[in-house]
Amino acid sequence: MKINSLGRNSVCAATALAAVCWCAVASANLPAVGDKAPLVQGKDQDGKEWKLSDVVGKKVVLLYFYPKDDTPGCTKEACGFRDRIAELKKDNVELIGVSFDSPESHQKFISKYNLNFPLLADTDGAIADAYGVRMTGKNMARRTSFLIGLNGKIVHVTDTMNADTHLSEMKEAVEILKKNP
Among 167, 156, 176, 13, which Cα is nearest to 77's? Predict the structure, then answer.
């Protein structure tokens, strides 16, 4: 019995250790504050090419990743950003949403909720991978937002599934950036 018990504990400990190690590796690719933002590009809901390199130096970029169009948390986040777009534009912030959804799905999502900013269709996951936000084993991104300064460096990262946290933290980060460019 003792050997069996130790065996189970060892297996549990090994599993826990593997999970911790895997999480550390998975988040190691997530760009941090002060890092140069990966210069990604992709096509929006209308097939128009968008390149971060075209915007750096001209605007601050709020690049936000979300799991799926027209789901409760993603809709709450998108509508929250929609409602703040005038304020973001006034602060020279370009808002770009990114998910694995197709351009057609993005078009429906935009139309249904009157979204007023582009959504990149990252159908192959290249953008999510560049930012280290792909969910393990899924063609889906974690809810993660990056505020990228005029110099192309990341000034704030929000990495949580809570949509309200993204909205409030990004609002605060834009305010801080305004005061300390």
Answer: 167
The residues with which 156 forms a beta bridge, in sequence order, are 147
Residue 114 in contact with residue 78, Cβ under 8 Å?
no
Q: Model confidence over 119-171: pLDDT tens digits?
A: 999 999 999 999 999 999 999 999 999 999 999 999 999 999 999 998 999 99
Q: Are 50 and 42 in contact (CB under 8 A)?
A: yes
Catalytic residue numbers read 74
Contacts of 130 (CB under 8 A, 6+ apart): 38, 40
- CATH number for the region 32-179 comes to 3.40.30.10
Q: What is the pTM of this model?
A: 0.84
